[in-house]
Design brief:
The chain has 236 residues and is mostly helical. Helix content is 69%, strand content 3%. The chain has six helices and two strands. Strand 1 and strand 2 form a beta hairpin. The longest helix has 57 residues, at 158-214. The N and C termini lie far apart (65 Å).
Length: 236
Amino acid sequence: MFFHGGIEHRSTIPYYTLFLAGWSVAILLIKSRKLALQRQALTLALIPEDPGFRLGSDESVRLVLDNIASQAYDPENFILLDRIQRTLSNLSNTGRISDVSEALQGQAEIDEGCMESTYTALKGFIWAIPTLGFIGTVLGLSRAIGGFGQVVSEGGSTQALADSLTKVTGGLSTAFETTLIALIAALCIQLLMTMIRSREEAFLDACSTYCHKYIISRLRLRDPWRSDLESGGDGA
């Protein structure tokens, strides 16, 4: 396919296309591997299973932070663990559970934005791959038609015209194959990216659910403007 009509008629465009396609696949495979590692954080026993355990006191917060430190070498590299660490570290400066919930929501939006930014290069590649294919098609058409036009202008014989037409059809085949390769590559990358992106979005939703279930619902804070305690299990 890349050497249609002989090596002298080869086009270098498909090589650039496959280079970008391979680069894109490598990025997606790395993202898939990282996502698998991130999901392992959801299985860690960070919060005691005791139903009566409540977060709020320095001792309870320290217990959870120690659990995180003991089960992860670098918690800052895990989205869920980093989100919990940031929230609990600032818990003493928070007066209401609604403030904690807003802080978690804000961090979730930041994580979502960071995830979205990782697709910038891939989106550029998906745009560039079919564009390269169309460029290859235009080059192939110009060469094929140009060669035929030269034979016609020289007033060649019928046999020469027939031979020239054969070369033109071969050139057209090469030109359109270039676009076909690019479109197939772009389609495969787009489908793979969509699949991994949906898995990442599901993971971020799982992180938010985890934080609500094990952090918000376990909170028990003393509002500095009130004398009683506010509990996350009360639907605050």
